[in-house]
Amino acid sequence: MLVICALLISTLSFGQKIDFSKLEAMKPRSIGPANMSGRVTSIDVVNSSPEIIYAGSASGGLWKSESGGIAWEPIFDNELALSIGAVAVSQKNPNIVWVGTGEGNPRNSLTGGYGVYRSLDAGKTWKLMGLEKTRNVHRIIIDPNDPNTVYIGAIGSPWGDHKERGVYKTTDGGETWNHILYVDEKTGVGDMVMDPSNPNKILVNMWQHRREPWFFTSGGPSSGLYMTVDGGKNWTKQSAKDNGIPEGDLGRMGLAFATNNPNRVYALIEAKENALYRSDDGGFKWEMINNGNDIGNRPFYYFDIYVDPKNENRVYSIFTNVHRSEDGGKSFQNIIPRNLIHVDNHALYIHPDDPKYMILGNDGGMAITRDMGKKWQFVENLPLGQFYHINVDNEMPYNVYGGLQDNGTYTGPAYTWKSDGIRNDYFFTIGGGDGFDVMADPDDSRYGYSQSQQGNVSRYDKLTGSSKRIKPTSDDPKVKLRFNWNSAMAQDPFDNSTIYFGSQFVHKSTNKGDSWTIISPDLTTNDTTKQNQDKSGGLTIDATGAENHTTLLVIEPSALEKGVLWAGSDDGYIHVTKDGGATWTNVSKNLKGVPEGSWVNQIKASRYNKGEAVAVINNYRRFDFKPYLMRTKDYGKTWTSIVNENDVFGYALSFIQDPVEPKLMFLGTEHGLYISIDEAKTWTKFENGYPSVSTMDLVIQERESDLVIGTFGRAIYVLDDINPLRVLAAKGQKAITESDVTAIDAVTSYMVSTRAASGPANPGNATFEGENRQSGSAIIKFFAKKPEAPAGGGRGAGATASQAQGRPAGGQGGGGGRGGRGGAGGGSSQRGPQAKIEIFDLSGNLVRTLSSPISEGLNSVSWRYDEDPPENTVQPELPAGVPAQFASFFRRGGAPALPGKYTFKVTIGNQSDEGKIEFQMDPRDTYDINNLIARRDLLREVNVLSADVSALASKITTDMASVDKVIEALKGKRGPEVNALRTKSEEVKKEMKELSDAVGSGGGFRFGGGSDSDIVPLSSKVSGLSRTISGSFDAPGAADRKDLADFNSEFKSLQSKMDAWYAANWNAYLAAVKTVDFSPIGGE
């Protein structure tokens, strides 16, 4: 049976799909950071407009700058895969841009793609043009004379054999493809270059390589160097005998033509002896010119060479460092000091007309030089961090922790009580190397545990920066510990001093890492054929620990049962112990439907039921890209799959079950985030401002109900306040569809004082600022059915014109950030049906009444912790063009409410629902409730005076406008009565302006309004006093009370003066107006 939910759920009898278009107010915040950036794999520039730059990242999508690298925007977030292997701009028609997905640097953490895409509008929109099964595209070349002719260099997936590798060509803009160069299922394109003087001549390195979970092999008999001179119709494989390239098995190559002299060609060739070769006849004959260490060091990961387009002897080899030759490759020198720009380089753009302008892409982002490498500018606003793990603490505000590929471990705030966004400098390093798991010490978050590759774990002090190595060791010299690239680490939920660490064994420390005990046997297969990492690499050994195997990846203690621990390995084993490690049971044989030997990425023990756990398993490292998510309820005796490949796109990486609502679950895959509100019966992709990025880890900050997301390519996202999803999971569609309104309990918020942002006061556009959480208000949320406009199009029932317009709020976003995505949640028009929101204290007293336009689905309204204003408060009309979500900035509220618990009632039509809301004072300080009461009471008095002043100002403003109408109407008229009235009007206007200047109505409520006289108007004095008192949470001082008394006296004096003036002048003026044959002062 199919039931359609009017609010947001299309529900099948077996589950519930979520319509996230009805949850537009619920968007995650991109908080960065961007100071470490991430791997940039491909760069292209519009040569005729060099300020337009495209940058492809390994797993963070495609970015574009139209300002020479100052500001950037992601332009590929809504496509199916965010791993970019190649980007190419048609220089003949720069609106044509091609992207090949799946990076071409086959390290252990490589991510895959899904075909090639084309844009015809400079990246605004994209179309998938096929070749989905190539998985990884390393090069794209567009014919310089014909943009419809494009060559695709598919390196293919390193994880398995497949035929979709080699060179593809289209001559019709991608509508059809020809597979013009293919060797075998093991061999793909390592590099591909086109002769700049002859687009039919192309050199291609076909590279045989294979990555397995435990080993990498570069090179083989299928590798080679191929040339075509007829656009790919015919190819010649070059040889040592005929062409001078090395004999024997070959590997990866880096190729480059010299633009100014296309007969000069360079080739870095991986072979038994790696060397740089040069050709001076266009690539037909080669000569080895350099076999030193200065040409490169890790061919499998980077082996690229570039030639200065104006000088065939100036050559750049980019690898760990950037080396330059001025003598045609015979010698090289490093041109970038190691600590200046990040190492591990993958892409270099050199402008064809200005070779001093270069852009470098590496594992730490991008850098730009305008003087040929003498000085470099790091691009610090590309949030491309590749996080392996994510964690949080319980500080206020809480901090996020995580480790990144090639960029160490970091910590920083999830939000700040400062102005502006979350700046890069708010995050800082706590560990080096390739960073992995980080855990804050639950006793004191100043301290914690940070991990890097091969089991290197330290206990850090983030205040001083000191660090103690606490890596477990073996007491038996015959037993060598095996640590994964990304080792298992866990905090015991029952004892803050107990932590666990994984090698092939489970290590336990009861003193925060000072000493360790092994509490398990070897929990892996201990397959010695998969323990040859010191020989990994193929032609060039590359033993960095990335291929370490038969190791533990997961240790998961149960939070319900002391002594119950789960362990998962990289070779498919899952074990469980119920007695703290005395005995272990291998339960992996019960994983029906999961290939033996698969990678156990995570295990999550249930917070609800003993013996229950969910295992996140993937097998893509053996060319199986299906998602595996298995659940047990009996300590692993039986397992049930709770996802299948038709539910989600991409293999499974992370999982978490909400600790409050068991039906609410989150699943991270290689290509995005999925949410279930029916306990995994159905999954829906979350796309509200969240890209299709590798979602590596998930954690819920329980105090604040936030989902914190660690991505592998786009740093960190925070989805504030998941309570709306909890309501959907708990109540289901019935509670929504049968009620016009459903209130959602609010998370506790805080009345705080905010500081100015640290760092530059006006930072410009080149710095990154993550999206900050909205502060200074509580957020009230409710679900509503699709609104029906009342007869006549007026306001909805329950809302009146005098009530303050609340500020619709998107999630808890609002503090925008440079380089982040989005900002404050969108609001709807003020017109149409309205919801009335009433806030009550626990005694039932009405504190505040707000109104808000209604949107179908989730609605959010801000309460600024204030009471209702005095009844005679004049609410100004909104200036033209101000959207409803900013209405509260122009509406006058009352005195501040006192901290504590409240209830709120949302009324739509004749239906209402109630929720809970609480706010407290700034937890960083202590407050005296008596001072807060004194502050509130005095502000109540100030608000009464402010309302009276506003009423006075409103009257005189209105009447002055009437006089202006008279003056305008008299233009062009003649006669004694007209002249007399004109003179009288000018006199009246002058006298009224003097009164207006004193009361403060000059300029009214316009932006930047104010009096143009030297008199400080009373309204400004009163508002200044209000700000002064509000700026502190202490009791008001004697000066504040004296000012209020003085201003009250001044108001009475002004009121008397105005009353006297009106009595003496206004009626007489109106009478004079009536002597003329019109009356522009309607009704007076």
Automatic annotation (TrEMBL):
GO biological process terms, semicolon-separated: xyloglucan metabolic process
Keyword Repeat attached: yes
UniProt biased composition (Low complexity): 798-807
Residues spanning the signal sequence: none
Biased composition (Gly residues): 808-829
Sequence segments annotated as region (Disordered): 444-475, 789-832
Organism this protein belongs to: Roseivirga seohaensis
Stated name of the protein: Sortilin N-terminal domain-containing protein
